[in-house]
Every structure is written in C-alpha cells, then in structure tokens.
Amino acid sequence: MLTCRKQVVKQSESGGEVTALIKIDEEIAVPAPPERVWAVVSDPSEVVSCISGAELGDSHDDGSFDGTLVVKFSAVRVRFGARVSLDLDEPEREGRLSARGRDGQGATRFNAHATFRVTGDQAGGARVHMAGEVNLAGKLASLIEAGAGAVVSRMTKDFTDELIRRCAGEQAAPEKPTFWARVRVWWQRLVHKRQTQQSGVSSGKAE
Question: Domain residues for 143?
C-alpha cells in the first residue's frame, strides 16, 4: 500500500537560470516486521537494488559514497551522478540522506535532502515514512518539473514492490540470457570439449 500525502513542484527563474523544487512526503506500508524492513532500507546496496536504473559507486573516507541514477522523463533519459551521505539512528530506526550532483551533461545541478523512518503497525507489519525535497537548477529543470509527478509515482511504486519482495525473502526473477550470452556459453562448452578431446588423444599417444 502506498500513500502519497503531498507532492508539490515549483518552478522559477533566478538570474536567468531555471530552477525547480520538488517536495515529497510519502508513506509505504510493508507486510513485514519493522526490524526486517529497517535492515533493507538502511543498507545502501539493498536500496539501490530496489530502484531501477540506480547504481552504487566508490565510497569515501568520510562515509559518503557515489551513486548514479538514470531517470526517464517522457522520451528523454537523464543520467544523474551524485555524492551521497547517509546518517542512521539505529535505535530509533531513522535515517537522514543528503545528495549533491548533476546530470551527465553538466547542464543541470541538484541537491537533495530527505529523512525516513520505520515504524510498526497494529497488524505486525511496518510503515516507511519518507519526506524530503530536491532542488534543481539548469537547462533540464523545466523538463524534470513537467514530468516529476509521474516519475515520482512510478519510481515509488516500483521501489515499494521490490521492497516488499525483498522483505518477504523473495528475489526478483532472473533475466533470461540474451542470444549472444547463449552463443558465448555454447562456444565455451565447444572449446572445452575440444580441449578435453585433444588432451585425451595426447595421453593415448604418450602411452
């Protein structure tokens, strides 16, 4: 179950540069114990696995880490790179996240701040509360502003579905191998078979 309490997008011009502000306040119901849900949402690698198009990069001495996210706005795919910091309060099951970066072309900059917490419900499940905002500035701000509503809703739904699956101990179904992947496996088997046969012939001659 997903409840979107508030989503506001504002756009303005500052010094000739287009800026946009996206605010998000959402609550996700997960049919799993709070401790299990916290174990997933407090682990960056687990969170990234729940978000399509997201990848983790290098980690830094200060505890921050690099990350990338590819987002599709209408017919345009935008790749964002960011440096992310995460502060966790284990006893309270609360976290604070901040990120700063830009798109792959360097045309749009952004910084984001968010908080999240995991609480229990009367049914024995958990609820994940998320609130935050993203500030954008640059050429793509208008494009992002226009498609933010649909993108946020889609990404939150996909994240929720994968989070529920992971908290239930399930894994996403493996992708079917591509044609070239099957050819590569076939070729490796053929080479191995020939090497084995040649080895057998050599052994026979030696005897």
Answer: 2-174
Q: Do 148 and 200 lie in a common domain?
A: no
d(CA 14, CA 21): 13
pLDDT digits (tens, 9 = 90+) for 53-105: 899 999 999 989 999 998 887 777 889 999 999 999 999 999 999 999 998 87
Contact 20, 144 (CB under 8 A): yes
Identify the weakest region by mean pLDDT among 95-104, 134-143, 173-182.
173-182
Please give the structure tokens belonging to residue 118: 């995991």
Distance CA 87, CA 132 (A): 15
Q: What is the CATH number of the domain that holds 101?
A: 3.30.530.20
Edge-first strand listing for the sheet containing 108-120: 2-14, 17-30, 126-138, 108-120, 94-103, 76-89, 65-73, 54-59
Q: Which residues contact 13 (CB under 8 A, 6 or more apart)?
A: 19
Overall domain count for the chain = 2
Whether residues 193 and 126 share a domain: the answer is no
**pTM for the predicted model, two decimal places:** 0.69
SS3 at position 70: strand
Q: How far apart, in whole angstroms, are the C-alpha atoms of residue 144 and residue 197?
A: 60
